[in-house]
């Protein structure tokens, strides 16, 4: 007999947790599980991930009625075996539900780091404390990486398990193409790509400054994405033709395919899906010295190079000596196809769902 899973998420707005949930549902065995998604809020339809194409039923709550009342009513009708929440508000709802079902939460970030960057040190600490107290009320909290699990244990003395994120390998098989010449880049040039929301946490200004500092004219940086920092970053880049702002695109894959390396100077991450997608396209990764990036290197020593954010000259030296490396490219792709993929991730979650 199939088990029923209810997934709860704040909204279906495109972003890290939503994309991870979409990928998870796509790869969980629909012959073993009936799946339902409850979105607590509506979002702009132009920025909404379409879950209706998956093997699940989707309900978006009304903004005019009490959230808990609506969720409790749906839970009573569905009678699930598992309720799995993603994100602070969804976790809060999950922690307050009553019933004979298993509660699961995926913790997508280190709350102390993430909330402090968004809200400031004091408000961030308070919000992180509320979040941790909520997670403690959920039976089976699971971090998205070993890094996040260890940080929560160290800072908050809460021991939780982890299941590493993984990407949908089918996303790498899109038919769209773009040529380097369309971007004013030569076939022998070295192309670095960054993909993500352009926020202070992603620290794209570091990458721009590094490119502007080097004398090489054959190294280009593609910044794929938009965000609050976009206009400031464009001003910082100035007229440097080596820096290309691609903007927000439905899929970054065609740009990753014409690149040679994936690069990130991020200040904090859970376990970065964008890096995995880059590696899945055969791009060795050049990453800042944060714990989640060291975890990526732990997964594949050969394909990941770490630079110290405090040692700017070392980063300049890396760029000045950068060349294509076919062995690193093959190693990057292999670890994603063999391990850092959604099939493995979904099987590990299925094991959690099946445990009594």
Automatic annotation (TrEMBL):
PANTHER family: GLYCOSYLTRANSFERASE. One of its GO terms (molecular function) is glycosyltransferase activity. InterPro entries: Glyco_trans_1, Glyco_trans_4-like_N. This is Uncharacterized protein. Gene3D superfamilies: Glycogen Phosphorylase B (3.40.50.2000). Residues 15-171 form the Glycosyltransferase subfamily 4-like N-terminal domain. Residues 177-330 form the Glycosyl transferase family domain. Pfam families: Glyco_transf_4 (PF13439), Glycos_transf_1 (PF00534). Coiled coil: none annotated. It comes from Anaerostipes hadrus.
């Amino acid at each position: 007999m199939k088990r029923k899973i209810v997934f709860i998420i704040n909204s279906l707005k495109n972003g890290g947790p939503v994309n991870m949930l979409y990928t998870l549902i796509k790869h969980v065995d629909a012959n073993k599980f009936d799946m339902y998604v409850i979105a607590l809020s509506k979002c702009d339809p132009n920025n909404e991930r379409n879950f209706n194409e998956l093997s699940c039923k989707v309900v978006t709550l009304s903004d005019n009625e009490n959230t808990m009342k609506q969720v409790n009513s749906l839970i009573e009708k569905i009678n699930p075996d598992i309720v799995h929440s993603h994100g602070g508000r969804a976790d809060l709802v999950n922690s307050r539900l009553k019933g004979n079902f298993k509660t699961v939460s995926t913790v997508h970030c280190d709350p102390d780091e993430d909330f402090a960057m968004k809200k400031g040190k004091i408000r961030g600490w308070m919000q992180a404390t509320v979040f941790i107290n909520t997670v403690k009320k959920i039976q089976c909290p699971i971090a998205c990486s070993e890094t996040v699990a260890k940080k929560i244990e160290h800072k908050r003395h809460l021991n939780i398990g982890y299941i590493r994120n993984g990407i949908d390998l089918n996303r790498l098989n899109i038919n769209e193409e773009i040529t380097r010449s369309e971007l004013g880049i030569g076939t022998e040039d070295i192309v670095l790509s960054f993909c993500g929301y352009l926020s202070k946490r992603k620290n794209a200004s570091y990458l721009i400054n590094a490119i502007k500092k080097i004398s090489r004219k054959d190294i280009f940086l593609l910044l794929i994405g938009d965000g609050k920092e976009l206009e400031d970053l464009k001003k910082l880049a100035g007229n440097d033709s080596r820096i290309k702002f691609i903007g927000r695109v439905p899929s970054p894959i065609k740009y990753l395919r014409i690149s040679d390396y994936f690069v990130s100077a991020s200040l904090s991450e859970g376990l970065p899906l964008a890096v995995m997608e880059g590696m899945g396209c055969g791009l060795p990764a050049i990453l800042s010295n944060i714990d989640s990036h060291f975890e990526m290197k732990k997964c594949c020593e050969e394909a990941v190079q770490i630079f110290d954010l405090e040692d700017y000259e070392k980063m300049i030296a890396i760029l000045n000596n950068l060349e294509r490396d076919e062995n690193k490219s093959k190693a990057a792709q292999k670890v994603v196809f063999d391990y850092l993929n959604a099939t493995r991730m979904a099987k590990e979650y299925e094991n959690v769902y099946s445990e009594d």
